[in-house]
Amino acid sequence: MTSTGSASRAIRPRSTARRRRLVATAGLLLLLLLGAVAALVVLGQIGASPRLLAPYIERRSSGHNPLIEAAGQRIAAALLRVDRGRLEPRRDYPAWSLPPTVATPTPAGRELTLTEAGQLQHELARAQPGDVLTLAPGRYRFGGRSLAVRRPGRADAPITVRAPQPGSVLLEFDLLEGFHVSAPYWVFENLTIVGVCRADDDCEHAFHVVGAAQHVQIRHNEIRDFNAHLKVNGADGAFPDHGRLIGNRLVNTRPRRTANPVTPFDLVAASDWRVEANLIADFVKDGGDFTSYGAFAKGGGAGNQFVRNVVLCEHRLRGAAGRRVGLSFGGGGSGAAACRDRRCVLEHERGLMRDNLIVSCSDDGIYVNRSAQSEIIHNTLIDTAGIDIRFAESTARVEGNLVDGPIRVRDGAILRDSDNRDTPLWARYIGLPGVRGYFADALGLDLRWVSAPPRRSQAQAPFDLCGLPRPAAPAYGAFETLDRCAQRSGAR
Q1: How far apart are CA 384 and CA 270, in angstroms?
Q2: Phi and psi, residue 267, nearest 5°
Q3: In the predicted model, is pLDDT for residue 1 greater than 50?
Q4: Count of helices and strands (H, E) across the chain
Q5: Helix, strand, or coil here: 61?
Q6: Residue ranges of the alpha helices (H) in 219-360?
Q7: Exposure of 375 by Cβ count < 10 A (0-12 exposed, 13-18 middle, 19+ buried)?
Q8: Are 285 and 252 within 8 A, CB to CB?
Q9: How many CB atoms lie within 10 A of CB 92?
């Protein structure tokens, strides 16, 4: 009996110690879990997605001892990998991203066929309403001064500059600004325009639409290698309202080495532009603040619309350093002198973003900055930091969107968030697929539905990204199926 009791007393302390160790370990794991949950909550509240946190960590660890610097680089790489996958450049644009090839008939009016660069400059200076300036197929190079467009057309007789077919005419601009348009009712169509300046600072715009240049149409062109392919702004109290940018391809073939703004469609203070069915891609800024936008409207204008565009923030240039935002009302803000009311209490109002596909942005897919009554309807965002509505001046209705990322509201903004499918920010940190799970390979741009797409009870947009009617119970986001876009897109 004595020996048995001694053995029991000898075993009991070891068992108690083991239990204490287990309790301590469980407590530590619980604390770590609670800490991780708290960290995810805090990161969600401040809007720090993994793709934005990674470069911050890398910058903060840079310049310390090698161990800290290496640890920072590893953490940043892990965050990017869980959020964005492998950041490898892609070769070709998907067929569904290309605007449809449209053979436009020659407009009615007096047609002049031009065969030399000097002829175009001459005829621009003397054009009359209804004139059609058709460039013969070939290559034309321009240097020195901008191509001044000062002669007004009329609503019933616009002046047209065109190629007979898309891709048949190449204009090479060694110019700070290409077409400087300051008169109303002009049409530019079917042209391929390339910036060929030795320094990127010297190729700012293919088109600068300014002042009284209302009702300008730029359609079915390919424009590449400029900082801001199309710049629109007021001058001397006049504003180039009611423009159209339709069916164009705005791209760059390499990062822009400049501190100047890099934004393929850069609109300040103008109103009632419709930007529709364009491809906007590879707008990487390699200089200055390293921040660029695909397209924005700011500076106190109103009623501008981004509809049925494909925005590939980085595609052939995927993985480059810097921050790229897809579409924005408000952009990064405006100086008062550039604003329509000289105050810029609001950057923009009554804007519409509808049926856009926005992909591969290192920053937000959609950013609303001090812009009131914005409507963000039936867009699809893949591989972006999501939708961000910011500052007390901003109000937005966000409905029917499919967002691979969070929908955030910050700094007093007002959001009417109705019937969207999005991915919470915390899910990005632990690698949950969220919205990506609807597609065969979202990061690989295989955007076929894995199964039947999630559907809404009613449509808030009559047509989808491909320009085809939506069914009564439409899919969330921009499209029913991208096959329909590929079928209506020709090779360009």
Answers
A1: 28
A2: -115, 125
A3: no
A4: 6, 38
A5: helix
A6: none
A7: middle
A8: no
A9: 9
The stretch 26-46 carries a mean pLDDT of: 50
**What are the angstrom distances between the C-alpha of 255 and each of 21, 197, 291, 321?**
56, 14, 12, 10
pLDDT attached to residue 124: 98
pLDDT-derived band at 43, boundaries 50, 70, 90:
low
Say if residue 170's pLDDT is above 90. yes
- For tokens 């590893």, the residue is 74
State how far the alpha carbon of 417 is from the alpha carbons of 4, 95, 408, 455, in Å. Answer: 71, 32, 10, 17
Please report, in angstroms and rounded to a whole number, the separation of the first and last CA atoms in the chain: 96
Q: Can you tell me the distance from the alpha carbon of 265 to that of 356, in angstroms, rounded to the nearest whole number?
A: 15
Residue with tokens 């997605």: 49
d(CA 255, CA 318): 10
Q: Let me know: does 380 contact 358? Beta carbons within 8 Å.
A: yes
* Rounded Cα–Cα distance for residues 349 and 369 (Å): 11
Q: Is 236 exposed, middle or buried (0-12, 13-18, 19+ CB in 10 A)?
A: exposed
Q: What is the mean pLDDT of residues 289-315?
A: 98
Rg of the chain in Å (alpha carbons): 27
Q: What is the pLDDT of residue 52?
A: 87
Residues paired with 402 in a beta bridge: 380, 421
Q: Which of 108, 114, 118 shows the shortest CA–CA distance to 136? A: 114
Confidence of residue 62 (pLDDT cuts 50, 70, 90): confident
Q: How far apart (Å, rounded) are the C-alpha atoms in residues 229 and 203?
A: 9
CB neighbour class for 139 (10 Å; exposed up to 12, middle 13-18, buried from 19): exposed
Pairing of strands 439-441, 446-449: antiparallel
Cα 377 to Cα 396: distance, rounded to the nearest angstrom = 10
Alpha-carbon gap, residue 19 to 401, rounded angstroms: 52
pLDDT bucket at 25, cuts 50 / 70 / 90: low
**Contact call for residues 54 and 81 (beta carbons, < 8 A):** no
Residue type, 184: P
Residue 18 is encoded by which pair of tokens? Answer: 């083991």
Lowest mean pLDDT among 10-19, 373-382, 456-465: 10-19
Task: Mark residue 330 as left, alpha or beta (left: phi above 0; alpha: psi -120 to 50; beta: remaining).
Answer: left
pLDDT (mean) for 374-399: 97
What domains are there in the chain, each with its CATH number?
A: 2-84 (no CATH), 95-488 (2.160.20.10)
Task: Write out the two tokens for 120.
Answer: 């175009």
pLDDT per position as a tens digit, 225-276? 999 999 999 999 999 999 999 999 999 999 999 999 999 999 999 999 999 9
**pLDDT attached to residue 48:** 78
The pair of structure tokens assigned to 403 is 């967002």
Phi, psi of 166 (to 5 degrees): -55, 135
Nearest CA-CA partner of 310 in 476, 91, 477, 87 = 477
